[in-house]
Amino acid sequence: MHGLMMDYQLTIDRIVEHANRMHPHKQISTKLPDGSMHRYSYADFYRRVKRLGNVLETLGVQPGDRVGTFGWNNYQHLEMYYAIPSAAAVIHTLNIRLSPEQLAYVVNHGGDKVVFVDGTLLPLYERAAGQITCVERYVIFNAPSGTSTSLPNVSYYEDLMAAASDDYTWKVTDERQAMGLCYTSGTTGNPKGVLYSHRSMFLHTLGENLATSLGATERDRLLAVVPMFHAMAWGTPYATLLAGAEIVLPGPHLQPPKLAELIAEERITIAAGVPTIWMGMYQDLKANPRDVSCIRALVVGGSAMPRALIEAYEKELGVNVVHAWGMTEMSPLGTLSKLQSHHDNLPDHERWDVKARQGYVVPGVEMRIVNDAGRVLDWDGSSVGEVQVRGPWIAKAYYRLEPTEEHFTADGWFRTGDVASITPDGYLQITDRTKDLVKSGGEWISSVELENALMAHPKVAEAAVIAVPDERWSERPCAVVVLAPNAGEVTGAELIEFIAPKFAKFWLPDTVIFVDEIPKTSVGKFDKKVLRVRHAEGALG
Ligand code: ADP
Question: Is residue 94 part of a domain?
């Protein structure tokens, strides 16, 4: 039709073209396994991405083929993030912390033809290799050529790169082609695959770069602690390059003191990771103070960031926390909590209340809460229902599974499985995941709220609340607590007394169990599935 706009395809190669044209001197830095820093410019990166395009062609990768990556956050992995989709293939980011059975399951289910394996992780991958049937070729990266492995049909990344030309024409032509495949980490069930398109990821990147969103600019230096196998590192590999921000990749150095050092030395302005990472770093900073106030946004999501920790970061460390909510099925960004102008005159404690919520939706995504009867609820701050979302970067089905009513509604919404209320000014407040709620005497108890309150106690480092079976009430909450270092003697009764003023009496956990460590999932969330099993087996103490 005359007068309409150009038919311009929103494809990932456009991002690296823009980055190279506008910001060729910006840096990409990686902390290598030996602790040294590898640095190169966007321009160097661009040439290597093109080379990798030729390498993929040599390997016989065809449009639509799935290419797996099994690695830490490093520059080679970032090259794959761009080259594989730009070659019209699909990058399938494999979680390095899955069990061998789960890893084999996702590789086979994804049907990966080629897999790039980080040489420092070979033993982990090799344990699963015997059960993997679809992979035709392996490429080893981040390790010297000739590194020995029991994997068949192996090539070495840098050998292939050295032999390839950097003269390459991007292969992707259509924004509706698939660009990425990521499986949920399986916190509440088997991993399920989500297939992203170029268009969905491009729009997600724009959404993430809005000023009201993460809003990275060329002034920023972003540290991606969130693994590149966890929900596409929350889109940060694409958002940074489109914004011209510098990106710092920690490789395997994820221990709290190493992260604190990296943040201080690299003058990081945005750092993204799950709450357990920032809990650990906070404890470490208390023992070994460092100036991390260079951070303007500590982005945290994946599970609820305790309010007390948001306050501690801000008050004690001068770090602004941006709490975000999303999931693999949402590319992953859904909401984030920044203060708005109508919060300007609030006292500090009320501002932290706002920041502890999951926040407002990123423009482009629609959100609603729905009760069990299917009625859409008001945004009144008290009505609680399941969160449902729709939008250009929300999944409409799982990969190679028929969409069912359990996850996708007949009228086109995705059911998140999260339960929440929404304040009149549009801030989402997650109560729980459906599967983690405690059902006591016909009433729901929010495990997240109890955890938040417990973690506000100065002697508590971590707290997870699980439902345990109860004859009279059907389920009762049980708190599993890790004490802070040097906490000394603390009793369960003392902790319950501390949180009691905040809750109705029947909400209070009947038991508090002290443990040395709370088991974590493959992406660092409290693993309540494991806690429930241990409790049932009487192994929790
Ligand atoms: P998995 O489903 O395997 O845990 P995801 O990382 O995609 O993998 O998890 C998404 C889920 O994580 C959300 O549905 C929600 O329950 C939880 N989540 C993510 N961010 C937050 C947050 N800020 N607060 C509370 N829960 C969150």
Answer: yes
**219-240 pLDDT tens trace:** 999 999 999 999 999 999 999 9
CATH code: domain of residue 161: 3.40.50.12780
Calculate how far, in angstroms, residue 25's C-alpha sits from the geometric centre of ligand 1: 36
| Residue 490 CB-half CA count within 13 A | 24
The catalytically annotated residue of 439, 459, 520, 529 is: 439
Q: Is the pTM of this model over 0.85?
A: yes
Alpha carbon distances (Å) from 348 to 131, 314, 339, 345: 55, 10, 12, 9
- Print the domain residue range for 499: 437-536
Predicted local distance difference test score (pLDDT) of residue 468: 96
Ligand 1 centre and the CA of 329: distance in Å?
10
Structural domain ending residue among the three candidates 191, 207, 223: 207
85 in a domain, yes or no? yes
**pLDDT tens digits along 6-37:** 999 999 999 999 999 999 999 999 999 999 99
Strand partners, 476: 468
Is residue 379 in some structural domain? Answer: no
Q: Identify whether 336 is part of a domain.
A: no
Task: Give the residues of the chain that fall short of pLDDT 50.
Answer: none
Domain count across the chain: 2
Q: How far apart are alpha carbons 525 and 275 in whole angstroms?
A: 8
Of 185, 207, 229, the one marking the end of a domain is: 207
Is 234 in a helix, a strand, or coil?
Answer: helix
